[in-house]
Amino acid sequence: MFSRLFCAHRQLPRTLLLLALSVSTAVLPGCRRPAPVIAVIPRTCGTLLWEAEHTGVEREAAVYGFNVYWNAPMREDDVQGQIEILNRALDHGAKGLIISPVEALPLRISIHRALLAGTPVVVVGTDLGIAPGKKLAYVLNDERSGGQMAARRIGILLGGQGTVAILGISNQLTSTADRARSVEATLAEEFPQIHVVFRSLALPTVSQEQQVAEKLLAGNLQVDAIVALTEFSTRGTYYALTEFNKTSSIHLVGFDQNLLIPIRTGGIDSIIMQDTQQMGRAAVKLMGEELDGGAKEEYVVLQPQLVTRENIDSDAVKTMLDLSWFSK
Fold first, then answer.
1. Would you say 49 and 231 are in contact if contact means Cβ atoms under 8 Å apart?
2. Within this chain, do residues 99 and 171 fall inside the same structural domain, yes or no?
3. Which domain holds residue 64?
4. Do residues 106 and 79 touch, judged by C-beta distance below 8 A?
5. What is the CATH number for 164?
6. Band of the pLDDT at 187, cuts 50, 70, 90?
7. Helices marked H in the chain — which ranges?
8. What's the predicted TM-score (pTM) here?
């Protein structure tokens, strides 16, 4: 029942939420103890990035005997919506919380509230700046490695010399900021003849990111390649390159797997893909350990995957993109 309540967003009727979380605590005469409910709240849902996490969560939850309450904002920039979902889940008895924050700072108060109430929390995807410890653990993508992959791919594409623009630099999430630093540090160290000539901060919608890319392409700045650090900046940049008929002349290396089809046609050279399915599995494993007395690890860091036309159909990539969360 609980695993079917997905992507209902913050306007989920109160009676349905009460039913989803309270049934697990109702003990009928002669019935065995019900399975605990863990609340899993990604940044949004219905995307390749987060539905793969759903698959990992559901499959590992079956091992531990958890029921999963899966819910998320309808937009990835809806911070308040995510906070409301989190608070309602806690108010109605979730035994544990797995969350991928939309932004780091605004979520800290709610996370502290959960920890003070004794609810274990596993944060997926970005460091909140709260030290891990009893009841708090992290599952993270290796952003330094991802930045190196992007920089080295650019180095190969440009033959070691040329100009690059970096779009989608975020100060709201340490994960994206780490990507940007790693890209620039690797380019400077390994490809000193490749120069970053344009940088832009992350914006909350695809259309806004597209406008940034359009202004870049319409200007006089010579750019040989673009690194887009978020799913929004990747999609927005691809749309702009298509509009300006420059998909074949400017290389695009993006992040986060919500736009993969253009890799097949060459419209996007490559994507640095997070293994969110394994991140979901790891988060549930840590939650199981927390509920059983304490997690053995504070940080689990997983490697991303560079996806190109050559390996997009490989077994490794197919496994990472398995969205069959309803199959256990």
1. yes
2. no
3. 2-141+275-303
4. yes
5. 3.40.50.2300
6. very high
7. 14-22, 48-64, 79-91, 104-116, 143-157, 174-190, 206-218, 231-243, 261-265, 276-291, 315-320
8. 0.87
